[in-house]
Design brief:
Strand content: 5-15%
Distance between the termini: 49 Å
Strand order of the largest sheet: 1-4-6-5
Largest sheet: 4 strands, mixed
Number of strands: 6
CATH class: Alpha Beta
C-alpha cells in the first residue's frame, strides 16, 4: 500500500510540455477507473450534479465582463444538473461506439463521474466544485482561450468573450476546465478532435446552455 501511494504521488508530479491551446496532462494521474460504476439513462440525475458548485477567481475583468462570466458559470451549473447533460455524455458516440476521443481509457459514464467529482489535477480533492482562476486578455488571433497543465489559471480572449453570449462563454470555460481534469485533444485540427472530451462536452454545455439564456 505504501509503495502504491508513493507511485501515485510521483505520477501526480509529472507534467509534460504542451502547446498552450492544448493545455493538459494525463487524465489517469489520480484515478483508478475501475472504482467508478457506470450510469444509465434510467438513473436519476445524481445529487452531485444537482449540487455542482464553482469557485472561480476573476482577473482583469470589468464589472460588466464579470457579470457575463458569472452568468456563464451559473449556466454551467444549471446544465450539469440536467438529465439531458447526463444522457448526452452517456450516449456520446464516436466511430460507432459509445466513447469519446482522447478519453484516457474511461467510459462515458466514468467521464461523467469525473466531472461531478471535479477533482482537478492540481487540486485532486473530490469536492464537487469547479475550481479555477480566469484571466481576460486580448490578442488578435483565432485562439478563444487556453491554459497550461501547471496552473489553475485559464486565459480567455476578449476578442471572442465580448461578443459571445453567456452560453458561448460557458461552452469555452467548460472546455478549458476539462483540461484541468487532465483531458487533452489534438493541438492541430483533425477530423476526430471535435469528439475529444473538451471539445465534445464543451459543445454539449454550450448547446444545452442556450436554453438558459
Amino acid at each position: 500500500m505504501k509503495k502504491l501511494t508513493v507511485l501515485i504521488l510521483l505520477m501526480s508530479l509529472m507534467s509534460t510540455a504542451c502547446n498552450k491551446s492544448d493545455g493538459s496532462d494525463d487524465p489517469g494521474t489520480f484515478y483508478d477507473a475501475s472504482i467508478y460504476g457506470d450510469y444509465s439513462e434510467d438513473d436519476p440525475v445524481p445529487s452531485e450534479a444537482l449540487n455542482f458548485q464553482s469557485n472561480v477567481t476573476f482577473v482583469n475583468f470589468t464589472a460588466s465582463q464579470r457579470e457575463k462570466m458569472e452568468r456563464a458559470i451559473e449556466i454551467i451549473k444549471l446544465v450539469v444538473a440536467t438529465d439531458e447533460f447526463k444522457n448526452r455524455i452517456l450516449n456520446y458516440t464516436y466511430d460507432g461506439k459509445k466513447q469519446f476521443v482522447d478519453n484516457g481509457g474511461y467510459t462515458n459514464g466514468q467521464i461523467y463521474q469525473l466531472i461531478l467529482n471535479a477533482a482537478e489535477t492540481l487540486q485532486p480533492s473530490k469536492n464537487n466544485i469547479m475550481d479555477a482562476e480566469v484571466e481576460l486578455y486580448y490578442e488578435n488571433n483565432n485562439v478563444v482561450g487556453y491554459t497550461y497543465p501547471n496552473t489553475r489559471r485559464i486565459w480567455v480572449n476578449t476578442k471572442y468573450f465580448n461578443s459571445y453570449t453567456a452560453a458561448g462563454v460557458a461552452h469555452n470555460l467548460f472546455h478549458e476546465w476539462l483540461h484541468k481534469l487532465g483531458f487533452t485533444h489534438a493541438v492541430n485540427y483533425t477530423s476526430s478532435r471535435n469528439s475529444s472530451v473538451p471539445y465534445a462536452i464543451g459543445n454539449i454545455v454550450g448547446d444545452i446552455g442556450r436554453n438558459f439564456l
